Amino acid sequence: QPRVFSGIQPSGGLTLGNYLGAIRRFVDTQNANRDSGIETIYCMVDQHAITVWQDPAALTRNTRELAAGYIAAGLDPAKSILFNQSQVAEHAQLAWIFNCVARMGWMQRMTQWKDKAGKNSQNASLGLFAYPALMAADILIYHATHVPVGEDQKQHVELTRDIAAKFNHDFGVDFFPLTEPVIEGAATRVMSLRDGSKKMSKSDPSDASRINMTDDADTIAQKFRKAKTDPDALPSEAAGLEGRPEARNLVNIYAALNDQSVDEVLRDVGGRQFSEFKPMLSDLAVAKLSPISGEMARLMQAPDEIDAILRSGADRARVMAAPILKRTYEIVGMVS
Ligand code: AQP
């Protein structure tokens, strides 16, 4: 039976990249599977967030804001299981087993580790290094078969398959499934508005590099107006975006927001200057995002309700996770 799991870190406010690359697709997956009995499980991965320093008050606020973002975008606690990772202890318990299955060399090859640890990797947390083993546990504690993610997380989902395969091989079992990353749509990699070679990220020090889901209409318009571009007009087909990363990024964002292909967008806007295209993009973004940010703001007025939704999601998640952890311990030979 297919089962879907994915998560987002409450390591800052939600960005347009998180929305287009992840949340919007979580909603589509939930709705497509509404009557099929396939479980869709979406987590706020707070234990991943603390692999780099998080101010405690900000972590609390960001976790609730992320939950509000999930719900405002269309995730329904009656249809999907929504919870925060630290409330289901089985994730961390399975992660320990996987820390003992995964190899140091596998972790060292991860591009996210290299990017985030930087040159001073001796000073990075042990948790940041082991991040992919916890992510494998998040997925496999539910025997999830499909993980909708943005392009940047593909390598970690592949590592999850390696961990599952090594566990199955080492213990001579066929227990953990080999999970598939699901990377689809026009915006699997939304880039920074200031640098077309860097992905848009909630932890980028420059707020101008990203659209936050909570930005108001004026801020969105100003950020797109200032977004880096080149001096040429837009081409009339996708091939003309070759070697123009900033132009490609803005067209990709437009296409994703408007549910169109890049070629369809360029058929309409090809030949126009950015001075004309950017206001079109801002208007579209405001039209699509403002209902979500309005609903997020409303939900944030009632943090107790958000916490109650997360608690009941965690109760449902634990029911699925506990037997899988129990069986894992038996396979490993732990006495219970
Ligand atoms: N720029 C992006 N384009 C498309 N998808 C993206 N995702 C993140 N950025 C983009 C997708 O969002 C999901 C959640 O990601 P995450 O919060 O767990 O971690 P991340 O990928 O490291 O995201 P950020 O925003 O860059 O966070 P920080 O700055 O804390 O590292 C994933 O499915 C991811 O692919």
What do these coordinates show?
- With 336 residues, this protein is mostly helical.
- It folds into two domains: 210 residues, 3-Layer(aba) Sandwich (Rossmann fold); 92 residues, Tyrosyl-Transfer RNA Synthetase (Orthogonal Bundle).
- Helices cover 55% and strands 6% of the residues.
- Strand 1, helix 1 and strand 2 form a beta-alpha-beta unit.
- Helix 4 crosses helix 13 and helix 10 crosses helix 12.
- The longest helix has 30 residues.
- The chain is globular, with a radius of gyration of 21 Å.
- The relative contact order is 0.15.
- Bound molecules: adenosine-5'-tetraphosphate.
- The site of adenosine-5'-tetraphosphate has 21 residues, from helix 1.
Q: Can you describe this structure in just a few lines?
A:
Pfam families: tRNA-synt_1b. With 336 residues, the protein is mainly alpha-helical.
Task: Tell me the radius of gyration.
Answer: 21 Å
Number of distinct helices: 13
CATH topology of the largest domain: Rossmann fold
Outline? globular
What is the helix content? 40-55%
Number of domains: 2
Write out the strand line-up for the largest beta sheet, numbering strands in chain order. Answer: 1-2-3
Structural class given helices, strands, pairing?
A: mainly alpha
Report the β-strand fraction as a percent range. Answer: 5-15%
Protein name: Tryptophan--tRNA ligase
Subunit structure: Homodimer.
Subcellular location: Cytoplasm
Keywords: Aminoacyl-tRNA synthetase, ATP-binding, Cytoplasm, Ligase, Nucleotide-binding, Protein biosynthesis
